[in-house]
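Researcher: We plan to redesign the surface later, but first we want a full-length starting point. Tokens attached.
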């Protein structure tokens, strides 16, 4: 059984650390500004540093699509920093219900290349099993 430690929360997202060894980012169906989205990801990186973990589950639910500016920043700034600073190596994405949000998430993952393993799931349970290494990707 996973225990969960809440790290950060605001109206757009919440960040938790799970004892299974990964950070979990849960999005709400709220439009956030570019600055707010960047700040959320900086909190994710801080949580990964604090807990010395290299994996992330991001649960998109009904999150609105990320602006292109944020997608580019994630792929070319945040993710390379996370790889360099904490050894970020695996990202489990529980896909959004909206097609545009799913496309935006996949565009960011495709831009990263082999430095980071991305897997897409339809449930948090399947994503959790992959991150814990108990399910085939």
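Model: Full-length starting sequence:
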């Amino acid at each position: 059984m996973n225990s969960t430690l809440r790290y950060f929360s605001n109206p757009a997202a919440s960040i938790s650390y799970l004892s299974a060894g990964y950070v979990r980012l849960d999005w709400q169906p709220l439009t956030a500004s570019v600055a707010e989205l960047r700040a959320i990801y900086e909190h994710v990186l801080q949580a990964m540093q604090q807990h010395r973990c290299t994996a992330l589950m991001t649960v998109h639910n009904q999150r609105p699509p990320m602006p292109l500016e944020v997608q580019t920043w994630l792929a070319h700034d945040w993710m390379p920093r996370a790889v360099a600073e904490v050894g970020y190596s695996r990202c489990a994405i529980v896909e959004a219900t909206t097609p545009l949000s799913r496309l935006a998430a996949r565009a960011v993952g495709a831009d990263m290349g082999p430095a980071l393993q991305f897997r897409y799931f339809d449930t948090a349970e399947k994503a959790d099993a992959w991150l814990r290494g108990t399910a085939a990707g």
